[in-house]
Amino acid sequence: MNVDRALQQLKEQGHKYTDKREDMLRYFDQENSYRTARDLLENMRENYTNISFDTIYRNLHLFVELNILEVTELEGEKHFRIKCDSHHHHHFICLDCGQTKEIHTCPMSSVKQELQDFAIEDHKFEIYGKCPTCQTA
């Protein structure tokens, strides 16, 4: 998802456009990694000195609810990234820097066999480790 599409989605769902929201979305659009609310707050404080954690969390929650951001939990803390628009895939996530890499293999065909009597509504598959850069650091 790109920023323009995300802003359009906000508008279509009845939410206001603000410069803060656009800047938040641009931050995630420029990153190829999962980032925390604290990362976003530090970035936003350059232009919005009085921005609060409440504002950050409220908007992050809204972006997740509107399917603009993806969320995962790493070491007990939520991490966010801009929602992927492309084909079905999963992610490798670096535990040090948060970088992501698409994984095009999906384990659902074998999992569905084990859950034949269950109605699967969605799934998420993530692999955690260290990217090549963090392995050498």
UniProtKB/TrEMBL annotation:
SUPFAM superfamilies in the record, alphabetically? Winged helix' DNA-binding domain
Keywords of the record, alphabetical order, are:
Cytoplasm, DNA-binding, Iron, Metal-binding, Repressor, Transcription, Transcription regulation, Zinc
Subcellular location per the Swiss-Prot or TrEMBL entry: Cytoplasm
Q: What is the lineage of its organism?
A: Bacteria, Bacillati, Bacillota, Bacilli, Bacillales
Tell me its family: Belongs to the Fur family.
Task: Report the principal subcellular site.
Answer: cytoplasm
Q: Which GO terms describe its molecular function?
A: DNA-binding transcription factor activity; transcription cis-regulatory region binding; zinc ion binding
GO cellular component assignments: cytoplasm
Q: Name one process (GO BP) from the record.
A: negative regulation of DNA-templated transcription
Which residues of this UniProt protein bind Zn(2+)?
94, 97, 131, 134
Copy out the cofactor comment. Answer: Binds 1 Mn(2+) or Fe(2+) ion per subunit.
The question of whether Lyase is a record keyword is answered with: no
Instruction: Please list the cofactors this protein needs.
Output: Mn(2+); Fe(2+); Zn(2+)
Protein name, as recorded = Fur family transcriptional regulator
Question: Which residues does Fe cation bind?
Answer: 88, 123
